[in-house]
Amino acid sequence: MNLIDVAAAGLPVSIDLRYASANNFTGRLIYGRAGCYLHPEAFERLARAAGLAVALGLRLHLFDAYRPVEAQWALWHHTPDPTFVADPRRGSPHSRGAAVDLTLRQAGGGLLPMGTDFDCFTDQAHHGRTDIAAAAQANRLTLLGLMSAAGWDFYGKEWWHYQLFASRRLPLLADGAAAPPLMALPGATGPGATG
Predict the structure, then answer these.
(1) Does the active-site annotation cover 158?
(2) Each residue's pLDDT tens digit in the chain (195 positions)?
(3) Burial class (CB in 10 A: 0-12, 13-18, 19+), 1
(4) Residue 178 located in a structural domain
(5) Has residue 50 been placed in a domain?
(6) Do 144 and 133 contact (CB within 8 A), yes or no?
(7) Which of 99, 100, 164, 180 lies 20 to 30 Å from 60, alpha-carbon distance?
(8) Domain range holding 80?
(9) Count of domains forming the chain
(10) What is the CATH number of the domain that holds 147?
(11) Of the residues 41, 44, 70, 158, which is catalytic?
């Protein structure tokens, strides 16, 4: 399958792949290389959402997209909670190149407040929360509106997660579907070494 390199495509988005740094819920690198890829259908919908955001003076800010099956296993081994981490035996839409984790930022400015950080595994991360600041509620609804208008489905327990409808119709993709592989850490030996 030909995944599309989001960074190389020139969309008006910013990218901060959290799993390519230790700034994620595991506290360690999951990806050895920061690469942001999507299935062509997902890329098309992301491009549409990015255009809708620009019309509002906003930018999409991506935390994750295609996630190799091996990365899904690493997350599951750290936190085997199917509420927030897809069981890799069933497969994640991310591992099909069919999902994005993202937020909004002001064009040329900072991230909009969303009430919680990305990958916050609490009830406050759910859509429709009224126990977060009104501005954060409005920002979540703006993101939901943009992504829904662009043809994305959402996951009710994570304000940042959007996926293609019926994403399980697509095959799971192992590391190497995007070349070069994402999982090999600097200095690691062997294909897909994660240290």
Answers:
(1) yes
(2) 699 999 999 999 999 999 999 999 999 999 999 999 999 999 999 999 999 999 999 999 999 999 999 999 999 999 999 988 999 999 999 999 999 999 999 988 999 999 999 999 999 999 999 999 999 999 999 999 999 999 999 999 999 999 999 999 999 999 999 888 999 755 543 333 333
(3) exposed
(4) no
(5) yes
(6) no
(7) 180
(8) 4-169
(9) 1
(10) 3.30.1380.10
(11) 158
